[in-house]
Amino acid sequence: MTPPPISTPAPLRTALSVNVNKVALVRNTRHLGIPSVTRAAQLCLEAGAQGITIHPRPDGRHIRSEDVYALAELLKAWPEAEFNIEGNPTQNLMDFIREVRPHQATFVPDSEDQFTSDHGWSFPQDAARLAPLVAECRTLGVRVSLFMDPVPEQMQAVKDLGADRIELYTEPYAAAWGTPEQSAQLQRYTQTAQAALALGLGLNAGHDLNRDNLSAFVAAVPGLLEVSIGHAFIADALELGYTDTVRAYQRCIDQGMQERRLLHP
Questions:
Q1: CB 105 within 8 A of CB 144
Q2: How many angstroms separate the Cα of 200 from the Cα of each of 10, 31, 123, 206?
């Protein structure tokens, strides 16, 4: 019997989850243990981030298994914060999910040697291998989000699979920022969000969102529960520090929420 959907209460605003992979990437270039991944996460949470995201790849090129367990322990002191572990569930992700039981598992269709995520799942092609893994996470009480391209027609398949949310892959939007294609790209995300919401799916987004393009995305895309930001966030933190960077991104979200209320009173 399929477990009932894991409830997602509607938030007052879009949440910020900080991806700390790049902190681990810098640390791994030496054997000194710095910069500290857990310290980075703590500073971000203290500054007001609502969650921490990690993507432990099989080659351990950034987040390592010990980071997963250390962050899980850290987040016990932050019960209101979300722990989101993302990755390909056919590789090493499920072992972490079973042991740590994070709040959210984001399934991403990366190959083992992939440089970075560059596409979402496709249905019906991927349905058979994902179905038992989605069901297992749900049985463990872990919310499941599927990394998806902005294709409205794919949302019914996500719903049928039993996932709780989608994470919109936003690189095409980011790449179109400031070009004549920007409006058309944003419309794709808006339409996909509307299709997802109509089916009762929660909505996350991530990949190449930054301080320039975030507010417009938050304003235009309805029902956006969470954004996960890593590369741009850490790049900004090198100049501003973790605390001021969290605050800067929260201001972007607040601006987007304000613009959304004006657009959709």
A1: yes
A2: 12, 46, 18, 20
CATH fold of 15-263: TIM Barrel (3.20.20)
103 is catalytic: no
Alpha-carbon separation of residue 93 from 88, 89, 107 (angstroms) = 6, 5, 8
Active-site choice (62, 82, 167, 207): 207
Q: Is the pLDDT of residue 120 over 90?
A: no
Rounded Cα gap, residues 201 and 206, in angstroms: 16
Domain ranges in the chain are: 15-263
86 a catalytic residue: yes
Residue 88 clears pLDDT 80, i.e. is over it: yes
**Active-site position among 55, 62, 167, 226:** 55
> What's the pTM?
0.91
The first and second tokens of residue 196, run together, are: 């997802």
What is the pLDDT at residue 221? Answer: 96
Indicate the residue type of 88.
N
Tokens standing for residue 120: 């979402």
Clarify whether 55 is annotated catalytic: yes
CB of 161 within 8 A of CB of 204? Answer: no
